[in-house]
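Q: Hi! First time doing this. I have a protein sequence and I read that you can turn it into a structure. Is that right? Here it is:
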Amino acid sequence: MAGLMGPRFGAQPGRARQLVVLLHGLGADGQDLIELAPDWASVLPEAAFIAPDAPDACDIAPYGRQWFSLQDRTPAVMAAGAQRAAETLEPLIEAELGRFGLPGEALALAGFSQGAMMAMQLGLRRRPPPAAILAYSGVLLGAESLAAALAGKPPVLLVHGEADDIVPVGASRAAEAALRAAGVPVEAIYRPGLPHAIDAVGIEAGARTLSRAFAP
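A: Yes, that's right. Below is the predicted 3D structure, encoded as C-alpha cells:
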C-alpha cells in the first residue's frame, strides 16, 4: 500500500483534532465500516475518519480484502501474520497523522473481526499508544506474550455477540481476562443473541469510549 486508501469521512487536514482509523474484517473492505463514522462524529465533530482497504485480496473467498491470511489458523501463525501487517500499517498511519498535523496521542483504532485483531495487535504495541482501541468480535493474538510486548495501556472496548458463530464469544472473554491481567483498562460488552455483527448498543458504546478518550 502506498498510503491508506479507502473511504473517508469528517474533518479535513488543518481542521481535524483526532484521527479514527476503522479496520474492516476478512473478506470486506473499508466501505464496510465507514458507515460507523457519522454516528461517532456526533461525539467527535472535529475528527477525521478513515476506513482503509486491507492490502491483499482475500485468499479464502472470491471477494474482499484481508490484512493477513487465515488459511492457517494456528495461533502462532496468525500472530505472526498480524504482526507483519501491523508493521506495514504503522508507518501509513503515521503518515496520515502527519498529513492532518496531529500528534500520535490523537489516534484511535477501531476494528471488526480480523480488523479487531489488527487494532489490538497494533494499538497495544504502539508508541505512543492510541487514545483508545475499540475491538468488535475479535481475537487478542499473542496473549501469552502481551505483558512483555505492551508499549502502553490504552483503554480497550470489547464488544462481542454471544451468538457469534464465526468468531466465538469466548475469544473476547479470553481477551478481557488477558488484558485485565496485564493491567490494561477494559470495558467488555457481551450482546445476547447477536451474531457476527455490530449492533446499535455496540455503536453507542464506541461513541462513549471515544468521547471519554478525547475528553478535554
